[in-house]
User: What shape does this take?
Amino acid sequence: MPSHTPSSALMRLHALDGAPWCWPTWQERTGILHGLFPEDDKHLPPGWTRQNARDVQSYFQNYLVQPSEEKKQQYQSKSNHPGKAVWDDFMKKNWVRWKIHDAVVEELKEWDCHPTAIIIREHNGDQNQWPHADVYAAQILNTLGLKLFGEEAFLPNSSTLPQSVRKPLTVFVQRSWDNLRKAVGRLKANAAKHEADAQASFAELENGYVTKKTVAKAIRNVASWKEVSELFNTAENGQKAEEMLGDLQVIMETLSSLSLVGQLSSQEISSCRTNFQFKRPSNFFKNYRKRKKQPR
Assistant: This one.
C-alpha cells in the first residue's frame, strides 16, 4: 500500500485552518506569507497562476474527503487530478530549499537518536540492524514542531504538540529517516572512493596548491571519509580523518580571515597552522603578500 508523504502530510495540516502556512515560523522558513490560496493574485505562491491555486485547492478537498486512510493513500498515489501535478511539482522544487530534512537531522542529533549513531552505539555499525523510525520519532516531535512551526502549533499552556500536528510531522521524520538509510547505503557502496578522494585532496594541499576552494574540497572529502569510517567501525581511519579535519579547518579559517588565494608550500601550510593556533607574527603572511604582488 502506498505510504504517506510530506505532500499528503501538508494537505492534512492545511485542514487545520490553513496550517502551517498561517504560522509565522513556517512563513519565515518558506517565504510564503499569505497562505496557499490568497485572494490577491500577487500573493500566490511563486510560479502559481490563479488556475493552479484552484486546482490544488480542489485536489486538497478531494483528498481530505476520502473515507479511510487506505482510500486517502490510494487517491494520492493514483489520482490524475490536475492539482496533484501542480502540488507535487511545488513540493519537489521547494522541499530541499525549505531545509526540512536538515531540521529533522539536527533534532535527531540533539536527542542522540540519529540512526547512524544508534547502529554504531548498539550494533557496531551493522547496517543490517537499521533501527525503526517509529521507535524514536516521538522523542523529537515537540522540539522539531517548535523549530518548524513555532508556538502557534501548540495548544495553550501545553508544551506537547496535539495529535493533529504530531501525525503529519511524523511523516516528515519518516521521510528523513528513509533518506538517511539510502545515504548510508551509498556511503557503504563507495567507501573506498571516499577514502581515495580524501587522501588525494589532502595530498594536493601537501604538494603546495592551497586555495579556499581546494581546502573546502578537502574538508568535504575528508568529512565524508570520517563519516564512513565511524559508521563502519574503522576507528584508525576515523582518527586519521579527525586529525586531518583539524588541520584543514585551521588552514581554512586562516585563509578566510586574510582573504588569501594562491599556491602555498607545505612549509608555509605548517607555518599557517602554527601562527593561527598561537597568534604569533607570521613571516608566512609577509612572504605570501610579497609573492602575490610579483608579476606572473
Q: What stands out?
A: Residues 260-296 have pLDDT under 50 and may be disordered. The chain has 14 helices and no strands. The first helix runs from residue 6 to 14. Residues 154 and 161 are 5 Å apart (CA to CA).
